[in-house]
Amino acid sequence: MIRSLKSWVVMLASCLLLWTAPADAHIGIKTLTGGFTSSQVECDTLCTGGPLTGGLAGTLAWRMDTMEPTDDPDVVKLVGVNTITTSAGTLSGIDYTWWNLATGDFIDVTVISSGTGAYAGVKGTLVIQGGFDPVLGQGTSNYLALLTLPH
């Protein structure tokens, strides 16, 4: 299920990236990949954070806003906010996660809507796929970011 969902999400992410770019804009599209090691951090809901490696080397902080059940009793849908901090600036956006609590597998899509520094004016999509153990509060995953940067 996660493998086919991942393929669908990558296709959707590509469409969202192109759809959010203004028709008359001169844009540069960047594709960035890497890894993410996450740990649960204290907050008033559910939060994780940790280092990113690769094209977006820095840190990622995630804060959950809502958790909803799905048709599968093992899978929940989470909605929150991701904030990525790099030496070149920050990126942030609304995040949607489907997490299998029985296996720990998850797929995560962030619609990047704002940035600072080198990422000012950025739009795009970040897809993270991996596992997160709810008992240990730790996980590992890989990401693919498709970003449009105005020239």
Could you explain the architecture of this structure?
It is a single chain. This protein is mainly β and about 150 residues long. The protein has a single domain, classed as AOC barrel-like. It has one helix at about 1-20, and strands at about 25-40, 45-50, 60-70, 75-85, 90-100, 105-115, 125-135, 140-150. Strands 1-2-3-4-5-6-7-8 form an eight-stranded antiparallel barrel. Strand 4 and strand 5 (about 90-100) form a beta hairpin. Residues about 15-25 have low confidence and may be disordered.
Write out key terms for the chains shown.
151 residues, mainly beta, AOC barrel-like, 8-stranded antiparallel beta barrel, 1 helix, 8 strands, globular
| Total domains | 1
* CATH architecture descriptor name: Beta Barrel
Q: Report the biggest beta sheet as strand number plus sense, adding barrel if it closes.
A: 8 strands, antiparallel, barrel
Estimated radius of gyration: 15 Å
CATH fold name, please? AOC barrel-like
Strand order of the largest sheet: 1-2-3-4-5-6-7-8
DSSP summary: helix tally: 1
Order of helices and strands: HEEEEEEEE
Tell me the overall shape: globular
Content-based structural category? mainly beta
Strand content: over 45%
Chain-averaged pLDDT:
88
Helix content: 10-25%
Unreliable spans are 15-24
How many extended strands? 8
Distance between the termini: 39 Å
What is the CATH first-level class name? Mainly Beta
